[in-house]
Amino acid sequence: MNSPFDPINKSIAKQTQEINGVLITPVDTIKYLGTYLTSELSRRDTIKARCKQAIRNAKGLIPFIKKTKMHWKIAKLIYKMVISPSMTYGLNVVALTKSNRTRLRQYEREILKDMLQAARNQPKLKTQEILEGKTITKIIKIYYNREKSWTSYLYMGRLLRQDLNYHNRNQDEWDTLAQNKMEMKKAADELYQLPETDTESSAPSEENEE
């Protein structure tokens, strides 16, 4: 079988295809919900777009910060509420490379520096100290870990349902047992210590089938 990277397959992939009467023209990059999708799953264009958007937002805010002569802590809050979300949008579901993270940190440092210079009483602190450790790469990492935790939670729930079905138990019965820790532990021990041959040879009762 030909590889998808063969010249023949590559030329075919570039041709317009018709699916259910709809003509589909292959493209190298597509923008969807503010993020860029590529055939190589590159995040470069998305990172670039997010940084440009953050710069535009900051340029619009800096004159306002100067005019009002606001305190640097207020300017920091504006950064956290307006600039940071515009940079992190769509990045919590992707794995960023080291160069991606470096670019984001650079833009964060420069934008925050310009905003605080326009404010009063600018502190002589590092970006991490100003943001109290909640830098842009840290925020993205938290979002990513939450996504993984939620996925793990769903996976474990699916495994539990499979085990209950396998041993002819139902979710309502398990919920009732969950109200008593000792009964739940006893039922769980019985559930996972049953011999495989017994469960396979025993047929469901008529009550369970109903």
Automatic annotation (TrEMBL):
The lineage of its organism: Eukaryota, Metazoa, Ecdysozoa, Arthropoda, Hexapoda. This is Uncharacterized protein. Residues 188-210 are annotated as: Disordered. Residues 200-210 have a biased composition (Polar residues).
